[in-house]
User: What shape does this take?
Amino acid sequence: MTPPELKYDANGLLTVVIQHATSGQVLMVGFANQEAVRRTLDTGKAWFFSRARQSLWLKGETSGNELHVQGIRADCDGDALVYLCHPAGPTCHTGEPSCFFEHLDGRDPGETSGEAASMLWSAIQSRKAEADTSTSYVARLLAQGVDRIAKKIGEEAGEVIIAAKNADRAEVAHEVADLWFHTYLLLAQQGMTPEDVWEELRSRRH
Assistant: This one.
């Protein structure tokens, strides 16, 4: 689909959903007219149209919390868009990462799997930056270097195999979690990110 094929409503607007390009978390919803879409495509930053002010606005223009657009998807009817973004700070004006942090009827299903993985990575990066080896297992292991982390990965891989041989589903889940956790640590130690692995896996589809 191309920009001229998009279908705007009677007010010249269409709905735009902002989704985190890595975790898949929905960050906000806004509206865009043709000019906002054009500026988004031209600049790689999320532009919107304010219905209240009847004017264009760039997300983060005053706060600095811009949305860096990695890709744009259109729905089957061409009357709504999804901006896949990397946020440069909290998206919500309240300081929350996402505008969608309230739960109707108190029902909280918890984070999605993608959000959980992103939160784990963020926690590891935070512990790495703090480098408090006295209280943080992550910081302590990172300080011990690649040999120690690699040894832990070898140990955890062996425990995954044992759990699988025992056909213990709960234990397999527990041990695979340990293995994934320590592979995340290895990526952090190597100055890499999970996205490096996803890029490699994407390349194997062809």
The chain has a mean pLDDT of 95. The CA atoms of residues 127 and 138 lie 6 Å apart. The chain has two domains: 3-87, 110-199.
